[in-house]
C-alpha cells in the first residue's frame, strides 16, 4: 500500500535509503525446494553495482548480499527470504550542500511535499540504490523461472539518438555473451562502440543522456496473465515504470503499431513442429493480457540522469531562488547498469503470474 | 488477484461478459457524502457507447446504468456502490462461426489456454464491452475529484500516421467543447477532419487502424504518489495498459526524452504567483513517482482493432488450419470511444492516491 | 480495504443495503470448469432466508439468486461470477421512527460517527441481510470443495444456557438430515426441542437470546494454511467474527484448552490404515496454523439480537435522551439461520487456502 | 499472501527462523514525523525476551533491535522502517534428535506436509521467536497511537484453572505498574502469587499449562473499523489468533454473552460530561464492527506449551512409531511473555484502522 512491495504471490518488499545502514529485501512467496545459488545472486548484483566501468558512476560499493532467512541447506523453505546489503561508501557530506535545496528533476521537492520530512543524503529512499535490492530478489525469481525453462534477456538498444539495429535473438545465450563483452551492454558490438564513445563525450561535458532497453522473455507457456486489470503486459509496464528514470514502456509493436492497419498487424496463427505459433509477433507474445507462448518483447525508455556537473538555478526550502552545483559521483547514462534491473523486474512479474496460474488452474 | 479489481483504497471490481445478462461494477471505498450525479454518469457512458457515429461500430446498446446500492438521498454513504448495465443488443449468433476458431490477435487462444474453457460470444470477458463498467466507475471518481478541483482531459492526438499538432491546453473546458464537436474526439479541428476521412476510408476497405490519445490531469496537488513500486506514473501506466488494445504508455517527455541530454531535460524550479512551478515540464508533473503540482501529461498507443472485414487464415481448436471471415459490427478505430475510458482510468488512479495521501499524512 | 471483500485468491465482494434495490456479490477467482448448480445455490439461500419458521423473523423475502456473469453452459469460466438478489419486502416506513435515534447495541451510532451519513432503513449496510450474499458465494465455494472431497457441517450447539451434548460426527450426511429435521438446526433432537420451546418463550416476552454454533470441516488435506499471520484458524476466526452478532471464536480445545496441561493436551501422532492421524484432536485439525488432515473443529458465540420488542431509553442525533420502541419483524435468536452463514464463510476460507496451496507448492 | 505480512496501510512483514542468522521486520506505512524512541522499542522487547524470570524459558537472547532504515534524525520519514534482531543463543544441536521426528502438537508435521521441506531447528519459522519482530513493530505502532491518546493494557487474567478477579481499570498506568511488579504479569497481586506458585509446580513436573490474557484499549475515537468483513473486532481476532498457541478469542461479553438475553445485554446510550457513552459495555467498545468510543475489551486463550519434559510416542518421517524426549529450554507457560505480544498486535490493528479512517473520511 505504501509502495514498497511488488507482486502478490511472489512478493517482494524492499527497504533502505541511499546513505542509511543498509538496504535489503524480503522475498515472500518463493516456492520451497528451489536451489538458492548465492553466487548467482552476487553475480547479478555485480552487474548492477557502481564503479564497474568508466561510463558508470565511480562510487564504490561491493554490494555484498547476505541471506538472513528462508533457506535451509541451500534450498528455499517457502518462508520469507530476507537479503541484506550493507551500505559502504557513504560520503554523506557530498550532500550537505543540497540539504536545503531542491535538485531539478529529482524527487527532493516531491518527497518534501509528500512527507513533510526527507532524508536528503543521496536522495534517501528515492535513490536508485534501492534497485540493488530488486536485483537480488530478481535473481531468486530467475532461479525459480530457470526450473520452468524461462529465460530473460535485456540489452541497451538505444542511447540518445543512437539506435541499435535489431539483433538476431535465436540464441539468447550467445547474445548474452556479446552483451557482457562490452561495458554499455548492447548486443550489437558496432553500436556498442558508438554508444560508449558518445557516453564518454557526454560525461566529459558534465552532461548526461537517456537511453532505451529492449527485452525478450522466452519460454513462457501460453496462458499466463490475468484478464482485465492485471493483464500480463500491464503489470510488466508497471514494473518497468517503477524503475528510476523510466518515462515510457511499449510491448510488441508498441507506439509504431498504433500507426499500422489491422490487416498488417494481425498475427496469423499456424503450427510449427506441432506447436501453435504466430507468423509475426506484433502482439509481443501477449494477447488479451495473457501469454500465447511466443517470445514476450518490450522496450523501456529512460530519461537522462538529473544530476549534471553544471550549475543550475533552483529553489531552496524557503522558496528562494538559489544556485546548485553538480557534485558527487554519478552515472552519465543509466542504461548500462539498468539492464539488469529491467531483467530482475521482468523475472519478478513472470514468477508472480506463474504462481497465479498454478493456483487458478485446478 | 484474479485480475478484475483495480485500486486499493478507491477500489473497483468489474464483472460481465460481452453477451451475458449484464456487466457491472462495484466501487468500494468511495468516500461518503459525495453527490452522486446519475445524469453525469450516464453522460459519460454515452460518450463510450457503441453506435454513436459513422466511424464507430454500429452495434446498438443504450448502456443504461442502474445504481443498486451505496447511495442514500443522492449521496454516497461510504458503502459499496454497485452499478448494473444490462446487455441488450446481443446477436450471439454472429459468433457461432468462430466458436471453434481462434481469431488472429484476439484473446480467443490465450483464454482457452489459460482456463480450458471460454465464452466465445463476442470475446466473452475479453471484450472491450467491459470498459463500460470502468467508465461508470470513473464517473464517480471524477465527481469525487471535482470536489478537489482536479480536472482530466484526454483527446485523440493521433490516428495511423496522422498526428495532431500540440493544442493549447490553457483552457481545458474550451478544449473539451472542441473535442466533443467532432466525432473522432480530436481537439484540433483541422486534424479531426483529416482523421475522420481517413478512418472512413479504412472502414470501407474492411480494415482497421490504430491511434494515440494524449491526456492531461490538472489540479493535482504536489505530494501524491507512493515511492518505489507504486509510483504515480507506474500505476497510471498499468491503468492505461490494462485498456483493451493498448500497446504503449509514456509520460512527460516519454520516449523522445530518452534521446535528450540532462542539461536540456531538467525542469528548473521557480515560483509563479508564490506557487512553486517548473519552467519546463518534461517530468510530466511527476518526479520520483510523486506529483509536483504541475500538469500531469501522458500518451497512450492503441493497436489497430483485430477484427477486420476480410478473410484470414487461422487455426481451430483441433489445431487445423482454417479460414475465418470478418463478420459482425466492429470499430474501424477504437480511439474516439477510448478517450473516455482513458479519462476514467486516470480518474480512478488519482482518486486512489488522493485517499492514500490522506491516510499517510497524519 | 474498505471492508467489503473477503479472501485473496478465491475472493468475494458484497454490496447492498437492507432496504436498497438489491444486494449481491462478485465471486472473483473461482477456478474454471466448476459445475455451477443454481438449484444448490438457491437451496442454500432458502436455509438462511427470513420467514422460514415460527422462531425466525416473519419478514418475507424469497431471496432469489440471479447469476449475471462468469458461467458458460453451466460451468464457471474463471471470470467473475456476479450474483444478484433483489430486495422485495422493504417496509422502510417501519424504520422512520428511528431515523433520528441510535438503537442500543446496533451500528446506528457508530456508522454515523464513521461516515457522517447513514442509511437508517433496516440498518442499511450493517444489516445481516448482507449475509445472504455470503451464502450465495459460499454455495459456489462448497461446489468447488465438493470436487476435492471436502465437507462442512455446522449446527446449533447452544441457545442461552441450553447446551447440546456432543453429537456423533462419524456420519455427517446423517447428521445434516437430523439437523434439517428441526427448525432450530441442532443435530441433537432432544436438545433441539428444548431450544425451540425456550426461543418461543423468549419471543413471547419480546426478548431475544444468544447462542452457539459448532462446526466441523472434514476432508481437508494436510498442508493447508499459511504461516505466521495468515494461520488457517486465524482466518477462520476472522471470517466468523465478521458475521453479525458474533462475539467469540474458539477452535479445537478452545478456552477450555487454556486450563489444561501440556501432557493431557498434546495430540499424539499415530497411523490408521496407513494414514497419519492423532489419537486426540485438541488441535482442532490445525497445528502451527496449517491443517494436519484431521477434522477441523471450531465454535462460534452469537450475542442476543439487539432489537427487542420493548421500550428502551437511548439518545437521538442531537444527543438528547429519548425512548425507542421495538417494532418490525425480527429474529428472537439468530443461530438457526446463522448455521448456513457459518458454513458459507468456512467454505470460502478453505477454498481460498486450497488455491494458495496449489500456487505455492510447485 | 504467503502469510508473513499483517495490516494494510500500517503494514508489517516479518522474517526469520528460530535458529537462522537473524529475525526482523519491515514496518511499511508508518506515518512520517513520528519520534522513533529506540529505548522504548528495546524496553518492549525486554518484556518479551526469554530468560527474564524463573517461570520462563532459561534460553538467553538479548534481543537487541537495530533500526536499519526509515528514520532520519530520530524521526520516521514515511519510508519502510526495517528492524533487525540477530539470533544469539542458538544451540541447534538441541534439535538434532528431532530432525526426523514430528513433535506432538507442534508444527513439524504440518510444515513438512505443506512445504515438503522444513528447518527443524527450534521449529524454524513456526517458532514463537518470530513474535519478537512483532513486538518491535508493535512498539512503533504504540508510539504512533500515543500521539492520538490511545493506550493499550493487557495482563494475565488466567493460568490453568486459576482466574483473576476483575481488576479496577480506571487507572491503566497504575495497573501497568502492578502488572510489572510480578513475574507472571497479572495485575491482581494475590492472584499473581498463586499463579507463580502453580507454574513453578507445573515446571517441576516437566509439564506445561495454558492461560488467558485480558486486554483493554482506551482512547480509541468512535468511528474506527470497516464494515462487513473487516470489522474491527474481526481483525483484532485474527491478530490474536495468529499468535502462537492461541486457541480462542472473545470480545466484550464474549462466550458468556451468548447465554444472555437482549434485554440485559443491550448497552444503553447516555451522555457523560457531554460525551456519548453506554451504561454497560457488553459490546466491548465495538458495535457493527466499528468503535463507539468506549473501552475496547477482549480476552485471548492460550493452549499449554507443546514441549514437555517427558517422553512421548510419535511418528518419524518414515511414518514409524518412535519415542521423543523433552529436551531444551522451554516455557512452562507462555502467557507472562505473551502479554506484550498481545499488546503489540492490538497496537498494530488500531494503527492500521486509524490510517484507514483518515483515508476514507474526506
UniProtKB/TrEMBL annotation, chains A, B, C, D:
CDD domains: Chorismate_synthase. FMN binds at residues 125-127, 244-245, 288, 303-307, 329. InterPro entries: Chorismate_synth (IPR000453), Chorismate_synth_AroC_sf (IPR035904), Chorismate_synthase_CS (IPR020541). Keywords: Amino-acid biosynthesis, Aromatic amino acid biosynthesis, FAD, Flavoprotein, FMN, Lyase, NADP. Its EC number is 4.2.3.5. NADP(+) binds at residues 48, 54. PROSITE patterns: CHORISMATE_SYNTHASE_1, CHORISMATE_SYNTHASE_2, CHORISMATE_SYNTHASE_3. It is an enzyme of class 4 (lyase). Pfam families: Chorismate_synt. Its cofactor is FMNH2. Pathway: Metabolic intermediate biosynthesis; chorismate biosynthesis; chorismate from D-erythrose 4-phosphate and phosphoenolpyruvate: step 7/7. It catalyses: 5-O-(1-carboxyvinyl)-3-phosphoshikimate = chorismate + phosphate. Residues 43-63 are annotated as: Disordered. Reduced FMN (FMNH(2)). The keyword Lyase applies. Homotetramer. Belongs to the chorismate synthase family. This reaction introduces a second double bond into the aromatic ring system. This is Chorismate synthase.
Amino acid at each position: 500500500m505504501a509502495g514498497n512491495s511488488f507482486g502478490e504471490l511472489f512478493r517482494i518488499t524492499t527497504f533502505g535509503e541511499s546513505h542509511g545502514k543498509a538496504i535489503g529485501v524480503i522475498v515472500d512467496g518463493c516456492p520451497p525446494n528451489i536451489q538458492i545459488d548465492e553466487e548467482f545472486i552476487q553475480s547479478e548484483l555485480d552487474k548492477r553495482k557502481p564503479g564497474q566501468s568508466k561510463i558508470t558512476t565511480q562510487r564504490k560499493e561491493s554490494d555484498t548480499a547476505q541471506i538472513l532467512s528462508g533457506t535451509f541447506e541451500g534450498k528455499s523453505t517457502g518462508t520469507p527470504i530476507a537479503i541484506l546489503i550493507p551500505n559502504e561508501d557513504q560520503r554523506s557530506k557530498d550532500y550537505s550542500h543540497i540539504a536545503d535545496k531542491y535538485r531539478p528533476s529529482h524527487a527532493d521537492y516531491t518527497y518534501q511535499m509528500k512527507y513533510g520530512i526527507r532524508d536528503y543524503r543521496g536522495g534517501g529512499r528515492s535513490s536508485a540504490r534501492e534497485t540493488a535490492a530488486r536485483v537480488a530478489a530478481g535473481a531468486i525469481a530467475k532461479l525459480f523461472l530457470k526450473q520452468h525453462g524461462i529465460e530473460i534477456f535485456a540489452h541497451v538498444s538505444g542511447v540518445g539518438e543512437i539506435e541499435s539495429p535489431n539483433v538476431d535473438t535465436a540464441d539468447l545465450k550467445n547474445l548474452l555473451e556479446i552483451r557482457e563483452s562490452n561495458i554499455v551492454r548492447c548486443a550489437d558490438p558496432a553500436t556498442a562502440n558508438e554508444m560508449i564513445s558518445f557516453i564518454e563525450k557526454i560525461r566529459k561535458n558534465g552532461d548526461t543522456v537517456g537511453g532505451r532497453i529492449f527485452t525478450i522473455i522466452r519460454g513462457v507457456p501460453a496462458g499466463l496473465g490475468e484478464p482485465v486489470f492485471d493483464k500480463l503486459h500491464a503489470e510488466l509496464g508497471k514494473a518497468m515504470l517503477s524503475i528510476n528514470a523510466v518515462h515510457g514502456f511499449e510491448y510488441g509493436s508498441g507506439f509504431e503499431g498504433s500507426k499500422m492497419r489491422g490487416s498488417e498487424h494481425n498475427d496469423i496463427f499456424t503450427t510449427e513442429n506441432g506447436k501453435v505459433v504466430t507468423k509475426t509477433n506484433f502482439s509481443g507474445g501477449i494477447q488479451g493480457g495473457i501469454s500465447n507462448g511466443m517470445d514476450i518483447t518490450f522496450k523501456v525508455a529512460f530519461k537522462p540522469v538529473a544530476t549534471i556537473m553544471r550549475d543550475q538555478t533552483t529553489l531552496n526550502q524557503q522558496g528562494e531562488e538559489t544556485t546548485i552545483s553538480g557534485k558527487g559521483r554519478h552515472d552519465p547514462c543509466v542504461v548500462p547498469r539498468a539492464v539488469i534491473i529491467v531483467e530482475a523486474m521482468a523475472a519478478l512479474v513472470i514468477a508472480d503470474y506463474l504462481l497465479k496460474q498454478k493456483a487458478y488452474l485446478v
